[in-house]
Design brief:
Blueprint lengths: L2 E4 L4 H11 L6 E3 L14 H16 L3 E10 L17 H11 L7 E11 L5 E13 L15 E3 L11 H7 L1 H16 L1
Parallel strand pairs: 1-2, 1-3
Antiparallel strand pairs: 3-4, 4-5, 5-6
Helix pairs in contact: 1-5, 4-5
The structure holds inosine 5'-triphosphate.
Inosine 5'-triphosphate (ITT) binds next to β3.
Length: 191
């Protein structure tokens, strides 16, 4: 499998994928053609990941890999979860909203989840992998690296937020890094 469409409109995901893959696989990841606009109406990360991968395969005629991800907070029964990208209008508003909702909560446990689904050019699932990264919701934001909720996610076992880690450090322990590592192993075994 030489060329795979990475079924995303999020440039940060693509940057992380390219950094993780560098030197570790001989696949060329390309973006979906114009008009890629999947209807993410699934109820789980697994369903939405498959919806995106199938849509990208359909409009490109190529195998496709999709990433559906989000932040699940224990005290909020897993919210914002699959709705993470739409929790509020802008990345900063999403951070402010979550900090505010969490301000009186003592249970700060949370996890980032990423489900990656690889389909062939007909939309058949070849492989699906999940990566998780556990941590806590911070009381205030810190750090400028990464994207999304990284500035308010304190990584378990580290004394800092995800946004205070370097790109390499994040990719080694992140939900996306962990899911992708398994996808890359699958791709290697195909050859
Ligand atoms: P595509 O569907 O086009 O891939 P998206 O950003 O809409 O892009 P999702 O529906 O999977 O993707 O939502 C993921 C959201 O979860 C993302 O927009 C962030 O708000 C959050 N998120 C996911 N991974 C993250 C990470 O590594 N760091 C911080 N926030 C993350």
């Amino acid at each position: 499998m030489k060329k795979i469409v990475f079924a995303t409109s999020n440039p940060h995901k693509l940057e992380e994928l390219q950094a993780i893959c560098k030197g570790h696989c001989d696949v060329e990841f390309v973006l979906p053609p114009q008009g890629f606009d999947p209807l993410e109406n699934g109820k789980t990360f697994e369903e939405n990941s498959l919806i995106k991968a199938r849509e990208a395969a359909k409009i490109s005629g190529l195998p496709a890999l999709a990433d559906d991800s989000g932040l699940c907070v224990d005290a909020l029964n897993g919210a914002p979860g699959i709705h993470s990208a739409r929790y509020a209008e802008t990345p900063q508003k999403r951070i402010d909203k979550l900090l505010n909702v969490m301000k009186d909560k003592t249970n700060r446990n949370a996890k980032f989840v990423c489900v990656m689904t690889l389909v062939d050019s007909t939309g058949k699932t070849l492989c699906r992998k999940r990566g998780e990264c556990h941590g806590f919701i911070a009381y205030s934001q810190a750090g400028t690296h990464g994207f999304g909720y990284d500035p308010i996610f304190t990584v378990e076992g580290k004394n800092c937020t995800m946004a205070e880690l370097s790109e390499e450090e994040k990719n080694l322990i992140s939900h996306r890094g962990r899911a992708l590592e398994q996808i890359l192993t699958f791709l290697k075994e195909l050859h």
